[in-house]
Amino acid sequence: MFELIDKGGPTMWLILACSFVAVVIFFERLFNLHRAQIKADDFLKGIYNVLRQRNYVEAVSLCDETPGPVAHMCRSAILHHDEDPERIRRSIEETGLVEIPRLEKNLGLLATISKLAPLIGLLGTVLGMMRVLLTAQQKAPLIQSGDLMAGLWQALICTAAGLLVAILTYAGYNLLVMRVESIVLDMEKSSGDIMSFLAGLQRRESMGSE
User: Fold this and answer.
1) Which pLDDT score is estimated for 8?
2) Cβ neighbour number for residue 3 with a 10 Å cutoff
3) Which of 5, 11, 21, 41 could anchor a disulfide with 124, C-beta 3.0 to 4.6 Å?
4) Among 111-120, 131-140, 172-181, whose mean pLDDT is lowest?
């Protein structure tokens, strides 16, 4: 392994640095997205049971104890439960605007690495071929195959490494994007559900006061 890295030349270290950053970002995002994606339906059922008892403080505490944007949006809605539906909707939207960038954190960098890696590999390939031509010029007219191997190894290893890092990084990026999209769908559904529920509570409270 280390022999191949050494044969790949200095460009290989750039590719390795890209792969290290990609691995760190992928697992950090995977862990955080896993925590953020809760069972929204079960969570809302628990919140509804508490809200039916008019225990808004406990409902907010449940939201605080639950990770993820769905819980944060529900918390925002509950804090404005006694206001008009339009204000509740705006508070949910404002929370969503904060939460979505958190979900997408560093995904752009991961996509950039997936595009840069093959270009860096191509750079290593070009440098390797230049090394071959320079050796051929220096050794001419008595050129042996062994004289050209170092440059050819560098060209091939950099190409393969750049493509491998790009393929794996792009696959990881798409996996994370799908997780984000799934969480965003949960956010949209849950926000509509909690708004409808709070509107129903307001109607029942107003009817009861009459």
Assistant:
1) 73
2) 8
3) 11
4) 131-140
SS3 track for 92-109: HHHHHHHHHHHHCCCHHH
Q: Backbone phi, then psi, for 15, in 5-degree steps?
A: -65, -40
Q: Which amino acid is at 8?
A: G
Residue appearing with tokens 């449940």: 62
One-letter amino acid for residue 95 of the chain: T
> Domain extents for the chain?
2-209
Report whether pLDDT(192) > 80. yes
The pTM is what? 0.84
Q: How far apart are CA 77 and CA 73, in angstroms?
A: 6
Write the secondary structure of the chain as one string of H (helix), E (strand) and C (coil): CHHHHHHCCHHHHHHHHHHHHHHHHHHHHHHHHHHHCCCHHHHHHHHHHHHHCCCHHHHHHHHHHCCCHHHHHHHHHHHCCCCCHHHHHHHHHHHHHHHHHHHCCCHHHHHHHHHHHHHHHHHHHHHHHHHHHHHHHHHCCCCCHHHHHHHHHHHHHHHHHHHHHHHHHHHHHHHHHHHHHHHHHHHHHHHHHHHHHHHHHHHHHHHHHC
Residue 107, CA distances (Å) to 26, 115, 118, 194 in order: 9, 13, 18, 29
